[in-house]
Amino acid sequence: MAQSRTSRDSGTFFANLLANRRNAGAAEANSPLNSRAKVGLLTRTLIPSPIIQWILPARLRSKLQNDVVFVGERSLQIKEAVSGVHLETVTSKADFDANIMAAKAINVSAELPWEAQMKLESGTDLPKDLPPQILVLSLASKELVFLYYSNLDGRFIHYRRPLPNDVSTFERFGRNIAVEPRSRAVAVSASCDYFGVFVLRKTPELQAQMSIDELDPVAEERFFRVDGDILFMEFLYPKSEDAGKIILLLLVAQDQLTHAICYEWDANEAFRHATPKVTKRLLAFEDRLPTMLIPLTKTSSFMLITTTSMAIYKNRLDPRRQPSRYPLPKQDSKSQRAPLWTRWARPLRNWLYNQKHDDIYLCREDGEISYLGIGSEGEVENQTPLGQLCCDVDAAFDILDIGHEGGDLLLAAGNTGDGGLFIQKARDHPRCVQKFMNWTPVTDSVIVKPSGQDESSTNIPEDRMFVCSASSFGRGAVVELRHGIEAQIGLVISLEDMLSMGDIWTMADGMDGGIFVLTSDPVSSTLLHLPADFGDEISAIDEADSGLDFGAQTLAAACTSSGVVIQITDKSIHLGAIAEPAANSRFDFGLDQAIAVAAVSTHASLIATAVRTRNEVYLILKRLTATNDAQFGLVDIGQPLRVLDEPVCMSIETFNIGVFIFIGSGNGKISVYRVQESVSFLLEIPIDLELGEDISKAIDSLAVVTVATDGPAQRHMVLCGLRSGILVPLELGLDPNSATAPIVLEQASPQRLGHTSVKVQSRGNFALLTCGHGFWQMSCSQSSGRSDCILQKIWITDQNNPAYHPKSVHSFALTSITDPETGSLSDSLFCIADGQVLICTLDHEARTVPRRIDLPGSANRLAYSPHLRNLIVAYTRTEYDTESDPIRRYTRPCIEFVDPDSQQSVIDILEAPQSEPRPWRPQGTAGEKISCILDWTPKKGDEEYHMIVIGTARKNQPDRGRVIFLQASRSPSNPTQIECTVKYIHKFEGPVYSIAPYGDSTLIVCTGHEIVPLEPKSSQTRWVRAARFPVLSPAMSITTREPYVYVSASRESLMVLKAADDRLVLHAFDRQKHDGLSHIHLDGEMKLTLASSRGGRVSILTEEGVADNDKVMPMALCEAHLPSSVMKLASGSSRSALSPESRVYYGTVMNGTVYSFLTLGENEWRLLHLLQDLCVRDPVVCPFSPKRKQHRHPVGHEPLDFRPSQMHIDGDILARLAPHGSSRLTHMLMSESSSPDPTSHGETWTRFHEFSLAVLGEETNPVDAVMGWLKKILHVEF
User: Fold this and answer.
1) Cys-Cys link to 409, which of 396, 400, 877, 994 (CB 3.0-4.6 A)?
2) Which of 1030, 1055, 1086 is the last residue of a domain?
3) pLDDT more than 90, % of the chain
4) Which domain holds residue 990?
């Protein structure tokens, strides 16, 4: 009876709820909230999706650069093969504003690849500065894009061609692209019924366009209709006697039959008047659903790969010839799966070989590859299995042809799991030389926030984001998503006692191109020599031959262009001619003298030392000179100059007005000296911290960096690293006309990085610095008359161990290394960490740098326990019972505790031999699924307890849901391990979907279609049995804020419940029915909630204005429509750059994308909305904006009818403006495109000044001020 009463009450409740939802429209029109509340939402892509759809070897810049194009979901990257077989990112393009549906490379030539190869060998090819290929993309916005990259202008040159608008969006016109082998035509098709052919211009016309940075490749176009689903579309290779023919093949499925349809026409005829010859043939029943269509180069044939066999159809579609059929490459008999062969690639061989052979690589979706040898008659002559790529390949597969003599270079990637660059030698297994990290699909995420002390003590955001990923082949991982500069380890040098090493210097050997590496600790030094190519063995230089002192600490070191190593110790200066030991020399100071600090500049031939004599310190300068007999000597410069403050660090800097010495002291003063014929004191400036007198101001290191400016004038910044963990920048001004004050220093705002000493080194226009566990790169740019410094974290990675990250970097040095093959320079980072010297390749641009901890199964839920300082991850493991018939598969959920700083995969930890048994881990029953994990700290009076709560769902058991309470703690015998036990299990009739804590000791559980309060027996709160609240659909997520419970229902969007009289009652609900996913309550007095739903919708909802009679929330204050659905929302610990009262919020997407969300006040929204309108109208910033979007309304004006979507600001659009600087914004403000009415240009400028004044106050240069503010709020720190 109780069950029937609950059902009857639920039906009445939902009938009333739906009626209230229908009647809410009239009340909304009269709501005063719409007229007064202005809340905007700024979204920004922090981490783009790692999915690689296609990898296309295409030289889009010039024929001399080995480019590879990586095409993602909405962007592309150009990478270049450098240093043999390493791909380095060159540039990217992410302004398409639509999904990319297909991509192909087009040769700017009428020859086949091997014909072009002969032409290349003969020396008659394209001009060196023109690319030999262009790229064609089809966008979901129904247009084709042809593009290449201009090295001269440093930008992409593109051409847009619209596709028919009368084709339904669901038919996806552009799903398939085919390029004719001689690049004379491009075919584009929808998924069914329609296709079009675009005839390209002749090669001389295209080259003439590209020589002046233009592109208009399409000469003619024509569209066709065909009934059925277009499975595949490819151009066939014409026979040599039919070289003037163009042959297009389509595989069309209709009514459970598949036909091959061939269109053939003469390339020399005008295509719009041509009548293509159409040939149609019914495919054999076993070929009706192929997984691949491969055009063969011989006899106009093609190959079909199916799930059971391979078939070759010869001579187009000759009905007189039956297809030749071959078995598929043998599958591993031990495999429990049946993966499909889905990708292929053709290696480029020499011209003579290609006359008689057509070789093909086949790739299976699990990474298995096989090599097919096809003869001149189109017959398969041999099949060679080659082994495993050890990655999922269901997306990208191609071959990079750069003339590598060590074998074919294979490129592979998939939608799940890593991709990679592989070397494939003949009849050998593929070897991975570079990985392309992929963390999709993301099934859950968690933000690990710093402790309260860490959060308040630094100005650097310390939030860490972890996601867990699954895989179609049972491989999963926990991945930390980081943003910054990657330093990838290429070589590791292990030396004894390296943990005590304090400093490292790297010096280019001008004699043979190698590198000297000098390391030092407080009592000794070591000198190593690395060859130029790092190929030979590393040699340690003997002390007797070096002329250096290895029994003392090194204070400074350098190397001259002739290979003489300079070492300064506390007692002497050593000049070591490594190649000629007889030329070694040294200069010793007196017995009562000791060098405190020193600096060397080989560019200025100067050695500066601060020498302590008794109780005084003197600055002594010496010039390095060469004698006639090729020996070096030291000459004093002027007289020693007394230094009043205790010196701690020193630097020699050369500017266009002379040479200067900067000395940092222990009491926080910077002293500047000028070097001419003698040394003279210039100025002294104290550091001002305004943080209290008890903070150390000792300057432990200093460096000078060049500031990036728009004009020719040079500006510089002095960076001072203090022992107290504070970085103090000072703007440096140069006045060549002033003899008394050629240098002016003005302190900027200090920034706390940590609590240990800040070490900083400059490298021209950027600097590297460390503090504690942090490692950063800093660059400076001028904005609004002042220099702004931007910090980017440096992440050291190891391709052989994706989980590796050094605990701390003790010291570092940066040097430029010349590539012996190309002659190009690349920055290499040498650092001492974890008892080793790590030699890393340093990237130029900041990007996503993931760190992965592999799991033995597919992960689906993730949580973090501050109490245990561990991640809690749920994953599934699959076992097979091969003895049963049929084979049975058992999939069970498991729980594991993962140290977020672990440098090993969980697999390695579980498989490693141990002397004692591993702690027990909970494991579910077969078929059970862990739906949620909660780290819970219930309270009883003054006592706190810690528990881990796990919700599960089962299908075939009477109790379909369980809530499992675990107690976990660190092992007393081994604190690195976590021990856990099951404390209690509560069973429910329905599956458990989500859990949230409420109050001191209550859990709110969604089980089935009910929200249920669950309290332990010791709880002081007692909910009545009727406290269960019915819902129409399961709650995907639950949060609480007493006395309210927020629910994101899978079919009902956001609902707010209220605890009243020990029961739950409806307080408010969203007026629109969306498929709810996640939500988070925002700080502030407006009772705002950020909610996400399927379809990419993210809304800001408010509880203000909810009437008691209908409970319906007002219309959303703001609504953003993103390309993908945000599965989970979370708040960060860092404050918004817009307002100290607001936090940064994060959202994760299944495809690996991470968004940030910032709420906007009315003034900020108006200014950003105006900037966004300007960007959308600008062809440089947003070249792919639809015209209807460009002229929707005047710049900065609000539509008459309020729409929530207008309050959304797309930060990705604004981020495109930032690199163009203030000059572009000024141009946009004054451009005619900013307003359809030329007379209103002044109005646009007036509105800009008005809005900027409301946000930033009065500024002498509002454009520069706004650009500096915009860069600050868009800066990615993660």
Assistant:
1) 400
2) 1030
3) 58
4) 927-1030
